[in-house]
Amino acid sequence: MRAETLLNACVLLALAAVPLWAWVADEPFTITLATRLAILALAGVGLNLALGLGGLVSLGHAVFFGIGGYAMGVLASHAQSYTPLTDWPVLIEGTKSMPVIWLVAMGASGLAALAIGALSLRTSGVYFIMITLAFGQMFYYFAISWPAYGGEDGLSIYVRNGFPGLNTLDPIQFFALCYAILALALWAMARLMRSAFGLALVAARQNAARVEAVGIAPYRLRLVAFVLSGMITGLAGALFADLNRFVSPVMFSWQTSGEIIVFVILGGVARLYGPVVGAAVFVLLEHFLGGLSEFWHIWLGAVLLGVVLFARGGIIGLVVGREVRRD
Amino acid sequence: MSLILFIEQMLNGLQFGVMLFLMAAGLTLIFGVMGLINLAHGSLYMIGAFAAAWVAGLTGSFVLALIAALAAAAAAGALVEVVVIRRLYARDHLDQVLATFALILMFSEGTRWVFGSFPLFLEIPPYLSGPVRLPGGIQYPLYRLAIIVAGLIVAAGLFALIARTRIGIQIRAGEADREMIGALGVNIAALYTVVFALGAALAGLAGALIGAIQSVQVGMGEPVLILAFVVIVIGGIGSIKGALVGALLVGLTDTMGRFLLPVAFAQVMAPAAATAVGSALASMAIYILMALVLIFRPRGLYGVA
Amino acid sequence: MIVRTLAMAGALSLAAVGAQAEIKVGMITTLSGGGAGLGIDVRDGFMLALEQSGRTDVTVVIEDDQQKPDIAVQLSDKMIQSEKVDVMTGIIWSNLAMAVVPGAVAQGKFYLSPNAGPSALAGQGCHPNYFNVAWQNDNLHEAAGAYANDAGYKNSFILAPNYPAGQDALTGYKRFFKGDLAGEIYTQLGQTDYAAEIAQIRASGADSVFFFLPGGMGISFLKQYADSGVGLPVVGPAFSFDQGILQAVGDAALGVVNTSQWSKDIDNPANVAFVASFQEKYGRLPSLYASQGFDTANLLLSALEVAEPSDADAFREALRAADFDSTRGDFAFGANHHPIQDIYVREVIKEGDIYTNKIIGVALKDHVDAYVGECKM
Questions:
Q1: What ipTM, to 2 d.p.?
Q2: C230 to chain B, minimum CA–CA distance in Å?
Q3: Cβ contact, residue pair A250, C3, below 8 Å
Q4: Which of A107, B131, B221, C91 could form a disulfide with B139 if both were Cys (CB 3.0 to 4.6 A apart)?
Q5: Record: fold of A2-320
Q6: Any idea where the domains of chain A sit in the sequence?
């Protein structure tokens, strides 16, 4: 694993160094791009917990991404127009404070993950993929047709929300914030992978019967993993909305779910830094292939296909060899 | 609400269901025999529609267009199977999802590259256009009746193929035990290619039939694909019978939901609000149906435990 | 995602030397995916006008938003932060406009909308640096309502997709239509089968149908409606009868009445020259969207003759004057920087093998949008 650790350190350093260089060179858009990368990587880290460790192939993680986004959109739009969310039974005001928004985003997406997970985890395999997709579509259509928060037009927030002590409108400061959260999430993930819970989760994926035999219920393990995973992705959604100062139902679409899966697999499933590398490659491909041809989706497809067919450990696996066995 | 309108809507639901069955049958067959989850099935539907529109534009013949759709989709299916899909059978569903997601990107943009960004034209042939009068005074488009009949014939043919023919026996044996039929000397590689091409041809046929009454454009396959997945999950993945039942259930639920829910809400709220709420709920109806089925029968209605 | 066509004003750009400062225009539009046809037309119309002007000091940076709001926002950041553009334009869809425009104008950029005109940006959200060169979203629907009165319709069945633009469409129609409603239906966005809705139209006892179903949805509806034999007269906004998609609808569209602020047979020298030169350059008839892109570029060029964008106040005044030869004939901005213009009634006809539109009347003269009173600037 030493090579992988070295690679991880390099990735983390590069992700910090490039925006710093851009800051010095006055290339603010590069910083924006790096921020987007960090946020998408965070969403991937969330999914990796369910998909990589737990073996739960969720094609509905856009639900949590979108809920996080709308938590930001709803709270900030009420703060922007000085109208309360509700005045009964208790008065709830909107807010422009990032920490509060993050807590709400994680709470709301955690609750949604609890409900969706409790139902979906009764199934497995392809059925699990499809029922999570179905929940995603439900939220998508609901968000499009619900007029209160803009429907398909989405919600624009004119000024980025605030974080105590920082000017979040400054690209480099907002990047630093997202980077810190990503680093924190990666650290927590690393701890979790080595914890009793993480080991039990992996064991439940590899052989559920054996885990049951030692008195652990796989269903509960998976549910906890699914909820945690949803919360992280929800937090990423709130940050993504703040990056764009905009939310829309597109965040709920099944293509979004598909893209988050792409980050995880492209980098390497169940690898700690898989989503970071995957998101980086995806964002760079988008950026540079787009310059080559109007039909760049063809080449993106070809690259994805190549990775699936010929680089089974993802890009990290390609670089450091397939040490983590996938099954 | 009149009885005539109600019956007409039931026919619409039936027609929609039959259409979905053509898509779902191929998906479920491919999953049942090869254990493959194919997101690119919607692209084969699109290829069928584009091939039909192109040939109809050249020759003016709808029959030739249908044949072209079948041939093009089957050929594309066989090609994709040999080049890509074949390498995925031994992989987990995750790899299959990603690889076929990549295929969607390539097919969609490739089609746009060849045919341009504007929708193509495909029309109902004159001998099938216009409404007919059914017993009871119902005016119903002849073409939709033809789709129902064509779909039911294909369904019957598919059941006969699987129950009666040699290849059907191999397909059923393949579903039951993949290694065994290989050991018995069946050419598995060829069987898989044939099954995949058959599923693709059904999707292409659906695309061509529907293309005549809808817009033939890039991206037309994905909404249908998601519905087809809902169908096979409700019916039980791998079961042709489940696909038929699931398709009719989804077709009827969707059509009747769109029709009845706004009416039902209008009993208790203002008309404008009722249409908004009713249609919002109607667009979620089939997903709610699917979630309900899976909660009570986690392997679908006809799935094997 | 970024189609980085650094398109210059024709081949002349190489000779771009001179005392004038370079003017940089950022165009974010939809060039890939299902909605690409609209963005391509706007781009082609815009670039044609630029080429005809012969100006060598205007650079256009064109990027593809893939019809995704988050991509559009990201591109807008790039245009403003890295490319340092002076003027932005290009967005087709209202939801993308809502994502990009408020931020761009707040950062001091000028935005010229060649298509989307959401009500929020015409009313309370109006901004001195935002100009809409196409229409406010409700305009064509209002004109359809006015036409329905003139045609003597008393009982309309109306339908649109269940999303904000669809709700605005029905509201716009009802604002002008004086008759009764036989039915009002919201369909699903992206729906392709309208059998259930057509059955309800048949049973409703309506004497006319109004629909707003942009893109592929409209193609599907018209084909199925024609085949159903219901046969009631249909009215709709021009979006479903645009040059790009009419060929895909075919005979099903013949005779259908639609409302538009532009048509290829508007008889003024600017339009005649535009239609001929567009056809010559691109080998197809121009669409509504192409005319809007063309007008947007000409508006920009007319303002550049008077002032530089760096002198924001003077440039804004020059834009407001709208001193250019529009393909629509008379063109002026209202107090909220949205067009005051005639809206025509067109009928779909067949010219040889090509389906196209011809003007049969005027629905609204010098029409001003409904939100101008809410705009405080």
A1: 0.84
A2: 9
A3: no
A4: B131
A5: ABC transporter involved in vitamin B12 uptake, BtuC (1.10.3470)
A6: 2-320
